[in-house]
Amino acid sequence: VQARANKQQSVASTRRPLLKWEVILVLSLLATTSLADDRQRKLDKLDARIISAERKHLASILYKFLST
Questions:
Q1: Which superkingdom, per the lineage (predicted)?
Q2: Is residue 18 classed as helix, strand or coil in its secondary structure?
Q3: What is the distance between the alpha carbons of residues 5 and 11, in angstroms, rounded to a whole number?
C-alpha cells in the first residue's frame, strides 16, 4: 500500500501546470473551430437563399416565355 502511495505521489509530482501559452493555444483553437462552424452555417443559408432566388428568377422567365 505504501509503495502504491509513493508511486501515485511521484506521478502527481511529475505533472506540471499548463503554461500560459498552452492554455491560449487550446482556447484559440476552440474559438477558431466554432467560428468556422458559424461561418459555414451562414454560407449554407446564403447558398440556399441564392439558389432559391435563382429558381424564382428562372421560373418567372419561363412563365413570361410560356405566356407569350
A1: Eukaryota
A2: coil
A3: 10
pTM beyond 0.85: no
Cα(29)–Cα(21) distance, integer angstroms = 12
Cα separation, 53 vs 58, in Å, equals 9
Q: What is the pLDDT of residues 20-39, one digit of tens each?
A: 888 888 888 888 877 888 88
- Residue 31's identity, in one-letter code, is A
Structurally, how many domains does the chain consist of?
1
* Helices marked H in the chain: 2-14, 20-67
Structural domain span for residue 55: 2-67
Cell numbers of 4, please? 502504491
